[in-house]
Design a protein that fits this description.
Blueprint (H helix, E strand, L loop, with lengths): L1 E5 L3 H12 L3 E6 L22 E4 L5 H11 L3 H8 L1 E2 L4 E4 L1 H13 L4 E5 L10 E4 L7 H11 L3 E6 L3 E3 L9 E2 L11 E6 L1 H13 L22 H5 L27 E7 L6 E4 L8 H8 L10 E3 L3 E6 L2 H4 L5 E2 L2 E6 L9 H19 L12 H9 L27 H19 L5
Parallel strand pairs: 1-2, 1-7, 2-6, 7-17
Antiparallel strand pairs: 3-5, 4-5, 8-15, 9-13, 9-14, 10-11, 11-12, 12-13, 16-17
């Protein structure tokens, strides 16, 4: 006997690994390389599309705590991410090709995981299945899932461009992390003065966007964290200066002053030959990206390895259809995992794959499934996406706001975050044995 896992993205690979790790055979279905989505470029598993950042590294942060919880309960992806880390200041970022290759090798080489390269158009009815086909689920399967779940929601996601390091004009840039946190060369900072910024802003909001027949590019329904920069800029002249181009915590060594606005570039790979335009997800036409982003002095002659793109994503109305163990309320032998469940972010998706995989094994063994305590970030996320009181459901990433309050109020923000983290890890240690 075996358990089916559909999709070899972050959630699917983590789910398959957790199942096989517990001695159960897995059939892992993946339609690549025979069929690729518009956003995918690599044939490897666990391809990181939007960014190579896995968010904050500090345990005293929501994203950092989530990753530490995953480490402590045996995450394959966290192990690979830690080995593939590249400088990113206070964040954990990875060389995306090394990361994908390492996960792919671990999954393909596991003796209990059988890889089936096939586009699945329906959910298998034999045995137990974890559906982790992600936000880019193919149309045929998406329709089946929608009919099974009473309809699904759609939104649109955008990715940022990547440029060649050697094409960045360092006469107009400098390396530094905000407030000198992390490595000195973690980011390349591309400053602009007030006049340069205002001219750039004007051209950005009026630039020509790529036509799409499946989305209103003027008012797309997207994750706020992946809002195209040109649409974000339409909210006002100063919006970018308080968002992806905020200059706080930085001082330009060329002038000795804080810049008016700054675009940060984060390294894409360990060799530091490619850099990602942080926060510059976009749906501009490719020539427009080169023209408008070239108004930033350091990027005047930038060579693009990859232009930004917008693509369709799909997620469920999870509070109505999923349990906190990620099983389908109408059929407990079917589990969902990843961004399709409404968890937002790479590691959030992987964490849901961990729990769905573990619980698929529990169901296979006719044991009670497990939901982590609400004071853990993994548990808080699973409870949020399955909370029937949530209306107008939108995807949710790791954040301290979904935690139950502390027993004793803590006024200081850093001390409060540290208290949340300590409470979570203490409780996780207490219940870890139940996850085997």
């Amino acid at each position: 006997m075996y358990i089916n896992v559909l999709g070899a993205g972050l959630a699917g690979c983590e789910a398959a690994y957790q199942i096989a790790k517990r001695g159960i055979k897995v059939r892992l279905y993946e339609m690549k390389p025979h069929k690729m989505t518009p956003a995918h470029r690599s044939e490897m598993f666990c391809e990181l599309i939007c960014s190579n950042s896995l968010k904050a590294a500090r345990i005293e942060s929501a994203a950092g705590l989530l990753k530490e919880e995953m480490r402590r309960i045996g995450s394959l992806l966290m192990d690979c991410a830690d080995q593939c880390a590249v400088p990113a200041g206070g964040a954990l970022a990875v060389d995306r090709d090394q990361f994908s290759a390492m996960v792919t090798q671990a999954v393909k080489n596991h003796p209990l995981i059988e890889i089936i390269e096939l586009e699945v158009t329906d959910i298998p009815q034999d045995g137990i299945t974890v559906v982790a086909t992600g936000p880019l689920t193919s149309d045929a399967l998406a329709e089946k899932i929608a009919s099974m779940c009473g309809g699904s929601l759609h939104f649109f996601d955008a990715a940022a461009p990547v440029v060649m390091a050697e094409s960045i004009d360092m006469r107009y840039a400098f390396t530094a992390s905000r407030y000198d946190k992390g490595e000195d060369d973690a980011y390349i900072n591309c400053p602009m003065n007030k006049e340069q910024y205002e001219l750039f802003h004007e051209q950005l909001i009026n630039a020509e966007r790529a036509p799409r027949h499946d989305v209103d590019v003027q008012n797309p329904k997207v994750y706020e964290g992946c809002m195209p920069v040109e649409i974000l800029a339409q909210r006002g002249l100063q919006t970018l200066r308080f968002g992806p181009m905020k200059p706080v915590g930085l001082r330009d060594p060329h002038t000795g002053h804080r810049p008016w606005a700054v675009l940060q570039l984060r390294t894409e790979n360990a060799a530091k030959t490619m850099y990602n335009l942080v926060g510059f997800q976009t749906n501009l036409k490719f020539p427009e990206q080169k023209r408008v982003f070239g108004m930033i002095p350091a990027l005047k002659n930038a060579e693009y390895v990859r232009y930004g793109v917008m693509h369709r994503n799909t997620f469920l109305d999870s509070p109505r259809v999923l349990n906190a163990d990620y099983s389908l309320r109408s059929n407990g032998r079917i589990f969902f995992a990843g961004q399709m469940t409404g968890v937002e972010g790479y590691m959030e998706s992987a964490s849901s794959g961990m729990i769905a995989g573990m619980n698929a094994v529990k169901r296979y063994r006719n044991e009670d499934t497990v939901v982590l305590p609400a004071v853990t970030m993994i548990g808080a996320l699973s409870r949020y996406i399955s909370d029937e009181t949530v209306r107008d459901f939108q995807p949710m990433g790791a954040n301290l706001g979904i935690f139950p309050p502390l027993d004793v109020a803590v006024r200081d923000k850093r001390e409060r975050a540290a208290a949340y983290a300590q409470r979570s890890l203490n409780e996780l240690s207490r219940v870890a044995a139940r996850l085997q």
